[in-house]
Amino acid sequence: MNGSTHDDVLARLRELQTGDLPVHGGRTLAYVYDSGLAEVDRIGREAVATYAASNGLDPTSFPSLLTMENELVGFACDLLSAPDTAVGSVTSGGTESVLLAVQGARDSRPDLTSPSMVVPSTVHAAFLKAAHYFGVSARVVPVGSDFRADVAATAAAIDDSTVLVVGSAPSYAHGVIDPIASLASLAGGRGIRCHVDACIGGWVLPYAERLGRPVPPWSFAVEGVTSISVDTHKYGYAPKGTSLLLHRTAELRMPQYFASADWPGYTMLNSTMQSTKSGGPLAGAWAVVQHLGDEGYLELATAVFDAVDRIVAGVPEGLSVVVPPDSTLVALATDDTCDAFTVCDEMRERGWYVQPQMSYAGAPPTIHLSVSAATLTSVDDLLADLAASVAAARTAGPVEVPRGVRDFIEALDPAALTDEDFDGLLAASGLLSDPTAGLALPDRMAPVNAMLDIASPALRESLLIAFLDRLQRPLRG
Q1: Angle value at C-alpha 380, between 378 and 384, nearest 5 degrees
Q2: Is the domain covering 294-396 a CATH 3.90.1150.10 domain?
Q3: Could you report the per-residue pLDDT of 265-274, keeping only the tens digit for each?
Q4: Which residues carry this modification: N6-(pyridoxal phosphate)lysine (predicted)?
Q5: pLDDT greater than 70 at residue 56
Q6: β-strand pairing of 243-247 with 87-91
Q7: What does the pLDDT look like over 347-368, one tens digit per residue?
Q8: pLDDT surpasses 90 at 104
């Protein structure tokens, strides 16, 4: 491959990006969090670029990164009512914060050969990933009709092997806060760690309280909460790639550290899972937090909660709010005149991205909205387009999976999925009309989502892994 000029490379980047979801404008209600403030975006990008080549591996060589990390953690500690003993680390995102919380809990009990953790069924899948990686059995307990963790079921699941009890503030799928005080009391009474996954809510719920909104207790103000994860690249409105894992004491953080001197190179010392890591994301988060400050975040929280309230109050006929949200996430259900997957497609046609959520444990599919501050100025358009999308979905009718395809899916064994099985499903879904041309995403995803919704969770996982494997193939030449 020959080299390209500066202008050619940037032109190619701009061309590639035309197929992506927009990251500004408040119309992408998943994956990105938009303050709506151009200056916030600008300062974050400039800080990332300034520190792109700096290496967070060694804080003694790049002390500015250590200063920024400690100041960022200090801001978060004040925000989350942490005691003076609290400490924290900057990670690459919520998943790494969760992985470290589970790994640290496991390694705090080296006497256990089969450690376990107790999590609600609504917990983020990152905890199941941690269970898979670290050999910690995940005991999944049900939630009540309010979609919050069942305290009695949690108590029944705790035993001498339990190293961690987890609650969400809020849960991703439904946007409600688990009964953290009760969960922390259960854990504390047994000398077990209690982690609060506040990756979504941690940077916005404290401001909700200041605005007088009802917020169940969830932070370090709750006795027994030992660690909290909170993402700055969500409602901190920082550039992608930063989260914080806070611990009540330095002693609780110690198992998170890794050091290795038994090799001929430098002594490896890591506070997180990464060794070499760009200083860019940390600098971007620090710069945005410094720029906005406490009052700036209060103003953004006012905007995002105004948007949430207007959306909840204005949901059009045919849709309903699954459960009143405690934070900034809204789950919508459809009535029997239309289906959620078609509504999502219709919204995409109208310039919005709303996220489809599959059926689970007998509950039907839902539509997920992660509301940002930038969404406020477009709420009327959002509600109008939701109404139009419901009308279009009613006209189109529910997506029907042909009986033969349904039977084929239900007969598949997730553990023995073959390339031929997968190719058959790709062809049936329209994702592989020509095997020689490779995968091609259809304009409308409702038929694909309807087929995935039929599959068991295990089969859905196998199918999506196979799909991702097909997507990630080298482009040469």
Answers
A1: 115
A2: yes
A3: 999 999 999 9
A4: 234
A5: yes
A6: antiparallel
A7: 999 999 999 999 999 999 999 9
A8: yes
The number of helix segments (H) and strand segments (E) in the chain equals: 16, 13
Please report which confidence band the pLDDT of residue 409 belongs to, taking 50, 70 and 90 as the band edges.
confident
Residues 237 and 34 sit within 8 Å (Cβ to Cβ): yes
Q: What pLDDT shows up at residue 435?
A: 55
pLDDT at 411 over 90: no
Q: Residue 174 gets which letter from DSSP?
A: T
Return d(Cα 304, Cα 371) in angstroms, integer. 7
* Coil/strand/helix, residue 243: strand
% of residues, the chain, pLDDT over 90: 84
Rounded Cα–Cα distance for residues 236 and 201 (Å): 10
Give the pTM: 0.96
Specify the pLDDT at position 366. 98
pLDDT over threshold 60, residue 436: no
| Other Cβ atoms closer than 10 A to 145 | 6
3-state secondary structure of 17: helix
Please check whether residue 105 is in contact with residue 75, taking contact to mean a CB–CB distance below 8 angstroms: no
Sheet of strand 116-120, all strands in order from the earlier edge strand to the far edge:
87-91, 243-247, 227-231, 193-197, 162-168, 116-120, 137-141
Decide: 220 and 86 in contact? Cβ < 8 Å.
yes
For the domain made up of 46-289, the CATH class stated in words is alpha beta
Provide the b/e sequence for 43-66 (b: ≥16 CB within 10 Å).
Answer: bbeebbeebeebebbebeebeebe
**Rounded distance between C-alpha atoms, residue 175 and residue 217, angstroms:** 15
* 351 dihedral zone (left: phi>0; alpha: psi -120 to 50; beta): left
Alpha helices in 80-114 (DSSP H): 94-107
Residue 17 C-beta-side C-alpha neighbours within 13 Å: 8
Distance CA 63, CA 47 (A): 16
Q: What is the residue type of 82?
A: A
CA 192 – CA 23 distance, rounded (Å): 40
Structure tokens at 183: 């969960």
Per CATH, 46-289 and 294-396 having the same topology is answered no
419-432 average pLDDT score:
74
- What residue segments make up the domains of the chain, in order of their start? 46-289, 294-396, 403-471
Taking CA atoms, 398 is separated from 339, 403, 422, in Å, by 5, 15, 25
Under a CB-based contact definition with an 8 Å cutoff, are residues 203 and 236 in contact?
yes
**C-alpha–C-alpha distance, residues 466 and 393, integer Å:** 30
Q: How is residue 328 written in tokens?
A: 């900034």
